What we know:
200 residues, mainly alpha, 2 domains, two-stranded antiparallel sheet, 50% helix, elongated
Amino acid sequence: MSGLDERPGDERQGSPARGAGEGAEPAAPEPSATLGGRTVRSYLALLDFAGRPQSKVAWLVRVAAIGIALFVLWRRVGAVTMPLLTAKPPPAIPTEEIDDYKFRLPERTRREIFAELATAELAERARAIRENTWKGHVWSREDDRGHYERVAARKAAAKHNVSLSQVYLVLDEGLREGWPGPDGKPLPGTTPPLDIRTGW
């Protein structure tokens, strides 16, 4: 006998516990990240609009998202279309005011504007004949003259500080009243009939 009392259950200091490493169950995995008792993945699933909602919460999220989208769309459409639907037309230019005024212009100014337009028209007609524009095609020449008439009208509007509408009203008045141009003759108030070109 060694003289050392050995009692059942005694273990030497530093010796491994009986059964350690043999048949032991693996440690439980750490719990996944949670947010308010639900996994993050379950919350992200609520934002999956490709599939059918699987819960009441998912249905509520889907309905809320659609409602917000419709509200934003309605506000956007309203902001674009309402000004077009509710805009009031500008006030018409008065045709008669005081004494010799028409279109808010005295007769002297109206005749000056008409004389400028008539001078530009006669010059363009002479140029078209001289350069044989459009190979003598009458309707094409008249259509081209209309372009130069717009240029002259814009210049007159800028010179006299009036609107383009006032300039064309003055031109219409001069044609109707037969005001003479720089050559002493009234401008023609007719235009050639439509004759579309078949070639260039």
